Each structure stands twice: as C-alpha cells, then as structure tokens.
Amino acid sequence: MLCAVLTFEQKESLIGKYYNPASIFNPIQDFYDNWVIFDAEFLTTAPEFKWVNQLPRIEYKPKINNPL
Question: How far is CA 38 from the centre of its chain?
C-alpha cells in the first residue's frame, strides 16, 4: 500500500483540516517514523490542498507497537 510522505511542518498544517465535507486529514507515523497520509487523503480534490497530490510516495510499513 502506498502512502504519501509529509514533513513535520506539512503534517502540522494538515491535522484537523477537512479534505472533503466528511473527512479530515489524519497523518500517522510509519515504521521509520515518517509522517504519512493515505490515498483518500493524498488524492484530494480540495483546491487548498492540491499540493498533497505532488508529495513523494513510499510503500507503507506499519509501526510495531509493543504491548505493555
């Protein structure tokens, strides 16, 4: 699964913003601590967020959470 990579500043600018009327951006960290968003988010057609369509893509590797 591909995801788009964000800088910390880009991540901060997207948190809580709507990319369509019913959905907000939800950046998460991958295995390598990259901030990423997924296809529904990076394929947005919202004019103010068209720049996310140009972000570099990488294969997503989930972060492993160790149980307490």
Answer: 5
Decide: residue 2, CB within 10 A, 0-12 exposed, 13-18 middle, 19+ buried.
Answer: exposed
pLDDT digits (tens, 9 = 90+) for 16-60: 999 988 999 999 999 999 999 998 888 888 889 999 999 999 999
- Give pTM, 2 decimals: 0.86
Which residues, including other chains, have CB under 8 Å from residue 34's CB and lie 6 or more apart? 5, 6, 58
DSSP letter, residue 33: S
Kindly report the number of other CB atoms within 10 A of residue 36's CB atom.
22
